[in-house]
UniProtKB/TrEMBL annotation:
Biased composition (Acidic residues): 1-12
Domain (Acyl-CoA thioesterase-like N-terminal HotDog): residue spans on this chain: 45-127
Enzyme class: hydrolase
EC annotation from Swiss-Prot or TrEMBL: 3.1.2.1, 3.1.2.11, 3.1.2.2, 3.1.2.27
Entry annotated with the keyword Lipid metabolism: yes
Annotated localization: Peroxisome matrix
Any one GO molecular function term: hydroxymethylglutaryl-CoA hydrolase activity
Pfam family, one: Acyl_CoA_thio
InterPro entries for the chain: Acyl-CoA_hotdog, Acyl_CoA_thio, HotDog_dom_sf, TesB_ACOT8-like_N, TesB_C
Keywords: Fatty acid metabolism, Hydrolase, Lipid metabolism, Peroxisome, Peroxisome biogenesis, Serine esterase
SUPFAM superfamilies: Thioesterase/thiol ester dehydrase-isomerase
Protein name: Acyl-coenzyme A thioesterase 8
Length: 316
């Protein structure tokens, strides 16, 4: 008999039940083996741009790489380039090259292919556990816990009830589709009156929808890779949103460093900032914090951002 479900969190806008197996494990990151070190991945959610979601490609590539290493090593870093636009109408093939298998570190090269051409390349490095007395980390920002914040659906409903905000949607339409397999709670939601004062920084709580469990740490890292690309590059446009709208925005590269064990189906704080933008590019840095203050993952990404001025009748 299943345990009774907790009542919906009214303040959180009714978070979904947590007893269902995460679709990120059962579908998105469940690759089909075709041959040794060759896998096929399908698509679960496609953004409104009708281009493949970069986080899906990163996550699936890491799944493919992880299948070629032993159980006693775990990913500590990956470095990726997006080289062509992905086609959402066909699957992606992942080819793994076992670059090096060493006593402490192992390196894998992954190429994602569609229509006979690479759309993405990635190097992932895995390490056996090696304790060290030398340890330090930054301090986690002081923010309200996720239980005190509105979820996306509640924020949308709040905007729709305010006549002054109906046309703005606070930039949340990008995650309005229920098929997105992650949950987000913004720490400081944007409002029109804040647009001219915004810094290139944002923070939000994030977790995978559904249950993953303790399971394999490799899978939690793959889920975090999927999550890490969501709304990340958009941090660079925040100070400019009142003046410009995005005409074209895609990721060029993506890097991650994994520091400590975590569960991707538990709330983590995603701290994002953009130290630089120019030459139609933007650079963003990110940190994923566990709720207990441990720095779990660091991220960096650069992407193409082309903008054009708002017309005289609208600012969003």
């Amino acid at each position: 008999m299943s345990p009774p479900q907790d009542p919906e969190d009214e303040q959180g806008g009714g978070d979904p039940p947590r007893d269902l197996r995460s679709v990120l494990v059962t579908s998105v990151l469940n690759l089909e083996p075709l041959d040794e070190d060759l896998f096929r991945g399908t698509h679960y959610w496609v953004p409104s741009t009708q281009r493949l979601f970069g986080g899906q490609i990163v996550g699936q590539a890491l799944v493919a790489a992880a299948k070629s290493v032993s159980e006693d090593v775990h990913v500590h870093s990956l470095h990726c380039y997006f080289v062509r636009t992905g086609d959402p109408k066909v699957p992606v093939l992942y080819q793994v090259e076992r670059t090096r298998t060493g006593a402490s570190f192992s390196v894998r090269f992954v190429k994602a292919v569609q229509h006979g051409r690479p759309i993405f390349i990635c190097q992932a490095s895995f390490q056996k556990a090696q304790p060290s007395p030398m340890q330090h980390q930054f301090s986690m920002p002081a923010v309200p816990p996720p239980e005190e914040l509105l979820n996306h659906k509640a924020l949308i409903d709040q905007c729709l009830r305010d006549p002054k905000l109906q046309k703005y949607q606070v930039g949340l339409n990008r995650i309005a589709a229920q098929e997105v397999p992650i949950e987000i709670k913004l720490v400081n939601p944007t409002t029109p009156c804040k647009l001219k004062k915004m810094e290139p920084k944002q923070m939000f709580w994030v977790r995978a929808r559904g249950h993953i469990g303790e399971g394999d740490m490799k899978m939690h890292c793959c889920v975090a890779a999927y999550i890490s690309d969501f709304a990340f590059l958009g941090t660079a446009i925040l100070p400019h949103r009142w003046q410009y709208k995005v005409d074209f925005m895609v990721s060029l590269d993506h890097s991650m460093w994994f520091h400590a064990p975590f569960r991707a189906d538990h709330w983590m704080l995603y701290e994002c900032e953009s130290p630089w933008a120019g030459s139609s590019r933007g650079l963003v840095h990110g940190r994923l914090w566990r709720q207990d203050g441990v720095l779990a993952v660091s991220c960096a990404q650069e992407g193409v951002i082309r903008v054009k001025p708002w017309d005289s009748t609208s600012k969003l």
